[in-house]
Structure formats: C-alpha cells, structure tokens
Amino acid sequence: HLATSLPLPSERDHLRPRIDLIAFMIDIKSKYSLKNVEASLAHVDASFFLGKVCFLVTGVGRVNYCSVEMNAIWKLGEVYCSPVLFCELELEGIRVATAQRLLRMLQICAGHIPGVSALSFGSLMRNSDD
C-alpha cells in the first residue's frame, strides 16, 4: 500500500492490513520529499524503529541535480536507527535488485523467515553500511 504522507486517514482503520514495514521514499532531487518524510516520521510509533523502517533514496544517478544534502539523509538513518537504501529507478537492473531487497526485508519484518527477527536484521543492516 502506498501513502503520500502520514498520518493515515482513520476512517478505514478497520480495513487496513497489519503494517510490517515502512519504506520512506526520498527523491534526492526534491527538498519537499525530504521535508514530507521528516514530517511523517512524527506519526510513526517508536516500536517501528526497531527494524521495521527503512529510507529508500531515489534519483541517486543524478547527483548533478541533487537538492537534498546527503548528510541529512545519513542523519535520518542514524537518528532513527534505520537502514538507508539507494536506488536509481530508471535503471531496470538496480530497480529489480532494490525491489528484491525490499521484498526480503518485508518477509523478515512480517516474520516469514525463521530465525531472523526484524530487530536483528535491522542491526545487521546498520553494521553492513560501515
């Protein structure tokens, strides 16, 4: 399911499926995109930051058109203890690999991978970024 911002409308709460993973998308060419993510973060329960949130940064192949400071993005990952993934949506191979990575993260967060919890996976992701 996609949402342009948080909080989600409450009138359909009873129909909404369980949320296992939140991927915040940041378009590196849009300062508004980063501001929208930052505003939405206030509406996420603190327990989600234990392995169930990631930041997906798009447009990384166009650093010449970058409007968002990379330090601001890295800081989000640090402050919220969440992995930062980079993707160029215009390149099919990278798009497919990113989709597969997100799907695997979702499987882990939903509890479909025995022996791996969202918390332990999140910890592994942060350590592998170094």
Automatic annotation (TrEMBL):
Its main location: nucleus. Keywords: Centromere, Chromosome, Nucleus. It is found in: Chromosome, Centromere; Nucleus. GO terms for cellular component: chromosome, centromeric region; nucleus. The keyword Magnesium does not apply. InterPro entries: Centromere_Cenp-M, P-loop_NTPase. It comes from the Eukaryota. This is Centromere protein M. The lineage of its organism: Eukaryota, Metazoa, Chordata, Craniata, Vertebrata.
